[in-house]
Amino acid sequence: MKLKNILQATGVASVLVFSSCSKSFLDQTPYNSVALPVAIKNDADLNAAMNGVYGSLRAVSLYGRTLFVKGDLMSDNCFLTTANSGRYLTMNQYNMINTDGDANGVWANAYAAIKNANLVINSTLSGTDNISQLKAEAYAVRALMHFELVRNFATPYTVDPTKPGIPIVTAFDQNSLPARSTVKEVYNQIIADLAAAAANVKYTINNSMTFNSTGSTRTLNSSYITKYAISALQARVYQFMGDWTNAKNAALDVVNNGGFTLAASGSLGAYWASANPRTDKIETIFEVTSDANNNNGSDRLAGIYLPAAAPYSGAYGDVLANASLYNLYGATDARKNLITVGSRAGQVSAAYICRKYTSNTTDYDDTKVLRYADVLLILAEAYYNLGDITNANLTLNKVATQRDPLFAGWNDAGTQVLEDILVERRKELAFEGSRLFDLIRLQRTFTKVMDQDAPQNNLTVTPSNTKLLFPIPINETNVNPNITQNPGY
Amino acid sequence: MRRSTMLLVCLLMALGQVFAQNRTVKGTVTDDKGVAVANASVVVKGSSAGTVTDANGAFTISVPASAKTLVISSLNYAAQEISLSGKTQFTVQLQPSSEKLDEVVVVGYGTTKKINSTASVSKVGGDKLENVPFASLDKGLQGKVPGLQSSGNNGQPGANQDVRIRGIGSFTASSSPLYVVDGVQIVSGDISSAVQTTNVLSTINPNDIEDISVLKDAAATSIYGSRGANGVILITTKKGKAGKTQFRFDTELGQSNYANIPDAGKPIKADDWFNLLKEGMVNANFTQAQINSTLSSYGYGNGVDIDWIGLTTRNGVQQQYNLSMSAGDAKTQLFMSGGYFKQQAANIGADLRRLSGNIKLTHNISSKLSVSTNWTVGNVLQNTPLSGPGQFANPYYVSLTLRPTQNPFNPDGSYNISTTNNLSFPAHYNPLYVIANDKNIVRNTQIFGGGSLDYKIIQGLKFTSHVGIQSNSMEESVFNNPFHGDGVSTGGAGTNNFTRIFLWDWYNQFDYHLDLLPNRKLSTDLKAGYEAIKYNFYQIQSTSQNYPPTVELPLSVNAASATTGLATAQNYTFASFYTSANFSYDSRYSLYGSFRRDGSSRFGANNRFGSFWSVGAAWNVDKEAFMKDIKLISQLKIRGSYGSTGNAGIGNYQWRQTYGFGANYNGNAGGTFNNIGNIDLTWEKTNQTDIGFDLGLLKNRVTITFDYYKKLTDGLLFNKPISLTTGFGSILSNIGKIENKGIEIALNVRPVEVRNFAWDLGFNFAHNKNTVVSLPNHQDIANGSFRLTEGRDIQSFYLRSLAGVDPATGAELWYVDNTKSATTATYASAALQFLDKSGSPKYFGAVTNSFSYKRFYASAEFYYNYGNYVQDLYSQYFLSSQFPTRGKYTINLSRWQKPGDITTVPKYVYGQANNANGERALYKGDYIRLRNVVLGYRMDNKALLAKLHLTSLNFYVRGTNLWTKTYDATLPFDPEQGVTSQNQEGLLSAKSVTVGLNIGF
To answer: Facing residues of B353 across strands?
Structure first.
């Protein structure tokens, strides 16, 4: 009888375990992730997803480093010192090929950020200000990433908007093998996304959001996309399209309504050294923040400019500024102090070392994507192109005289005004990844320093140089038969 | 309540009755020459009650009154049945058998008669593994089984060991075999998270192992379904035997040091080092002033000449003590054991101490119902200094990279930890100080255990329910002191991790044995069962820094700042149905079939269940009438099998499309769509053909086992590239194909057998050819120094091809491309190419000679490995002039010095880069090693033994890894470097001399 009981118990137990529970028994879920379709259920979840979007912008290949370095290293602002760590060699020498790791990194990470933004945008949640705001931020990031892709991988809009742009991605499809939309189509998408962002945005810097689902709050600062960041981004996009009326209107929205100010000239150094997102609306409209726990370590932006040795405490110290850039600044220009004159192994002449990014290993540098000074300079350029020279000079001098209190101000006429604006842009936006794009959207030829001690090695870079654009990465062309490669690769 | 009380009373009465009716039978068992046969099995026919004979061939057994017949059997003898009618004292003479009719082998979910088996299974007796100076049994398996490659690359006691059965069958998933301990499909390998290496198997005392079965072909492995593709290793622990209570005490004590540093790789002494430095600077056009100042900064002429290898190695202690007891009667059998094992590595700071205990209890409640339980507990304490590539605290790596001119001691005898100048330790650390003051401790307690219930429902039909567990708790404690070494920059650094693994495995199974046809000529065995396995992993990780200024308080409670604190967990489950059938006709023809349906949480929702099957057939040709007259052939069996297995060694959640956290922003949690998943993801599927034979000649004085196999693995997991515009780069998919085919031979011969002397020769051999058959989009896949390409071995080196040293200039020349028509002295200008060199051996195996003369015995086992190339991943530091201020291999002394010099070592130019990589860092990996040599004496003077109150006494001396022969004069390191054949600068492997004593009482 006992045996029978044992057997019965065993039998019942096995039936229980093996049959009725079999399905759930085999359904083991991870401890560090949830199933995608049920991940975002309320506004606090959507906020976490938006944090993920911003976190993906911190990638070394994006605003962590590469996007900022490329615009200066491939222009007449900077060069790679001979004693380098091997990073960005191909950019420096304009000899990238289709296996280029940096090009691949920008491409892959920008589309990864777009994938993350699409998760927020395509969420079925709606109806509250919080959700609307978060979706606005995601629209703006999607626009920003398409913009970075199209200006790095495709012909400038100002040259020929019918040329191949980049694939537009607005929804996840793991089987998609998209072709390149035209440059014009990409810009149209960017403008549409920014319009959607502007329509949805609810808050500006210093506003606070309280999430209905958790009661937790989020105070908006310069590390989030806010109302005027969208306008500032619109101004930049229209600038790249040469659509000066819209550029002016967008920039004026920031200037007239945004409440931003420039840093006092005496505190410019302190402004750049500060590692925290701001709520005081000084200079920064949007930046990507890093902190003690979430950062790029030695691959931080400062690390590429500052060597490891004291007093710099950086990492690689690979990229140096040109003497020609340094010499542009007047003696009393606050920006001159952002470059240190030092020395570098393997270089006889003085080394001009960028100090815009300070090496801070407890709270890593934040990288500025949109600054008020840039908006003012876009506005000046828009006034110039619309024939309003007075306002062009007035706006230009807001920046120029703020930085150098002893500078009397620009007061030129005709096409020289544009040249003044470009010089001021070069001085103001040095090391912020801007210079190369000014040169190529305006189709300028420039001189690239290869070795400061050997001017005979200088390169003359013309707008026809195909290496000014990144190659479509081989990892994409290998699997995607619909994509076309850029000329020269 | 009342019912159960009554039941208990009934049960006790029944037990009492059984006891009351027992009687005692005694006897002795001898062979045909009258020599006592020890360990012969004595079983009451029709029951599981039994005992074994002692060293004198004597047995005592308590038998029930109903018992009529005893069955006496022993390996190599024909089983004999004796009638119990009336007598209580027997003398049994066994006749030698060439048939091994009753020999059984452990296979999946049970045992099978060897004669009926259709599978390729290699059995390794526990006696081959016990008492050896290896911390884990997988090291002991090297050379024991044809086709099983066991290779280590780290002399750390308790280091993980690479084991591959019949080649490498996977790229992305695991290629390690499945280990099954007493019916539990365990987690094996390295489960550490903070220290360099550990090995789950190091918690098992090899002395507790009865035997190991290595399952190789589909007929053996397919019953393990989705986990059988890499082969299965079944470990069965010892159990008690009925009869007189027997105790056994074993000890082995000795010393070890490093096994092998070839001459080419010994570090050079100070004079030579300065000569090289000087010559390098002259060749690099340094001025005399620069040369003088550099030489002086390294202490030229101050007489310091440090033997770093000598200082970082030692004569390590090797000791073990094992005590076991076997006891029991017809109803209850008990085995208990306790063990202590301690091993110090050849390198300082590394050791392992194991305490182990084992208990197995079986009890026959009635003739129908029996229960058993077993618990194997091991506690390992392992000091595990860093032993990875390029690590400054790795005592072996630094012994090569430090200059002979760096003095580890201050004049007052204290450790020199200054970092101020080139005479002290400005870059690499003083290993003596770091080893003395850093901590890398693992404390691991592992329990394997479980219980089973057997119920004989009717004659021939048995039900078994077996529950087993693996429970593992690992504490890891790493401390880098704040004064010198890796901890300086953070004021001391600590990592304290805790890992808990709990796994249960429950199977319920029916076995049915039926003899059909007249004379019971058709023997039928059927099996069907259901199994469920659940694994749960939990880990807490913490790191901290800024310790107080002492080396005495390594735990993180003393640190000023905690830098990481996190917990993580993982699960997996398997649920399976399995069945098999074996039909044997007249012991001549056998037919076998198996089927398993596996479900696993690791497989995508679309492919959650898979079916695996096998068929096998065997023909015992020697049983045919026409073979009667062929006296030469005593045994001949021809086997064949075909079937499918899977490899489920993939990530626990990889198939899932998930949203995960970690993309944090502004100190707030950030989530992203982080795993693309693949709802179709499933096991890799292997179809294997095996054809073999077992041949015995001259009354089995010569036995040969031969197998040919061909394994084609399909649905190999690869990351299939997809458009990056999706936001992902690839999707893990079942898309590749790989093939392994080869032969295995095991040969055992007794060439000489005279009155007092016997010589046994054992030889085993394996050859495997691996071919990558299909890759995603047919594109090559770069894999470090290897490259996967269709049509080649998976471990094909893809490097720059060396053309040699130009006798005119001393420059190292490389082939520009694979046409080998032009050379270049610029390393970067040479193309990467296939070199027709692989990291996998073409052949490997072992040769064992055993001799016995009267009571003396000796044996020598040589392990051989042929046909692979081993790569030095760090040679640029010790072989090239690129890093001229580090220690150097001796082979640098044969460098090119003047036009006309013919050498393989180029001109030594201070700081010149990149000349020690590529093909130059590849060496022939062929070697022969004297793996094990034993000389012993077995006492059989009964009078003396009786006086000592002993039943047996055996004394021996053992040498392990005493001699290594390599076949490349330029090879600077030991050629055994794991299955990838890449030198990772792991700790030196040991050779040891030990003395052993085995006592029975």
So the answer is: B342, B381
How far is it, in rounded angstroms, from Cα B454 to Cα B456? 7
Q: How many residues are present in chain A?
A: 489
The runs of H, that is alpha helices, within A201-316 are: 227-241, 244-257, 268-273, 301-305
The residue among A1, A46, A47, A51 with the most chain B CBs within 10 A of its CB, best to mutate, is A51
Asked whether the beta carbons of B448 and B181 are under 8 A apart, the reply is yes
- Of A376, A66, A411, A391, which is closest to residue A239 (Cα–Cα)? A376
Question: Between residues 654 and 713 of chain B, which touch chain A (CB distance below 8 Å)?
Answer: 656-677
What ipTM does the predicted assembly reach?
0.93
Q: B781: domain range?
A: 130-242+329-393+438-685+694-795+839-849
- Rounded distance, CA B608 to CA B683, Å? 10
Report which of A287, A282, A284 is spatially closest to residue A262, judged by C-alpha positions. A282
Stretch (H or E) spanning B199: none
Task: Let me know whether B565 and B675 are in one domain.
Answer: yes
CATH of the domain at B637: 2.40.170
Q: How far is A441 from chain B (nearest CA, A)?
A: 25
Contact B534 A223 (CB under 8 A): no
- Asked whether residue B178 is assigned to any structural domain, the reply reads yes
Within 8 A of B539 by CB-CB distance, chain A residues are none
Residue A9 pLDDT greater than 80, yes or no: no
List, in order, residues 6 or more apart from A336 with CB less than 8 Å away. Answer: A326, A329, A330
Q: Is residue B1000 part of a domain?
A: no
CA distance B198 to B190: 5
B87 and B190 in one domain? no
Which chain B residues are within 8 Å of A277, Cβ to Cβ? 666
**Is there a single domain that holds both residue B520 and residue B657?**
yes
Considering the domain architecture, whether residues B531 and B642 belong to the same structural domain is answered as: yes
Picking from A52, A54, A63, A89, the residue whose alpha carbon sits closest to that of residue A74 is A89
Task: Using DSSP bridges, classify how beta strands B589-600 and B561-585 pair: parallel, antiparallel or unpaired.
Answer: antiparallel
Among the listed residues B510, B447, B537, B574, the one whose alpha carbon sits nearest the alpha carbon of residue B182: B447
* Cβ proximity of A319 and A91 under 8 Å: no
Same domain, B456 and B597: yes
Among all chains, which residue has been given the structure tokens 């539990």? B184
Tokens of A77: 């602002």
Q: How many domains does chain B have?
A: 2
Q: For residue A444, what are its two tokens?
A: 């300028």
Q: Minimal CA–CA distance to B868: which of B891, B890, B916, B835?
A: B835
B610: Cα separation from own chain's centroid: 29
Please check the confidence at residue A14 and state whether its pLDDT lies above 70.
Answer: no
> Position B763: which residue type?
F
Tell me if B119 is assigned to some domain. no
**Residue range A271-304, pLDDT digits in tens:** 999 888 999 999 999 999 998 888 898 899 999 9
Instruction: Evaluate if residue B81 carries a pLDDT over 90.
Output: no
Alpha carbon distances (Å) from B771 to A2, A182, B546, B738 = 58, 45, 52, 6
- Three-state secondary-structure class, residue B290: helix
Distance of CA A325 to the CA centre of its chain: 23
d(CA B884, CA B298): 12
How close is the nearest chain B Cα to the Cα of A11, in Å?
A: 9
- What is the band of B940 on the pLDDT scale with cuts at 50, 70, 90? confident
Using the Cβ of B944 and the Cβ atoms of chain A, whether some distance falls under 8 Å is answered with no
Q: How many CA atoms lie within 13 A of A372 on its CB side?
A: 22
Specify burial of residue B187 (Cβ count, 10 A radius: 0-12, 13-18, 19+): middle
**Global pTM?**
0.87
In a domain, B251, yes or no: no
What residue ranges define each of the domains in chain A, with the CATH number in brackets? 41-207+219-477 (1.25.40.390)
A168 vs B90: which has the higher pLDDT = A168
Contact B575 A22 (CB under 8 A): yes
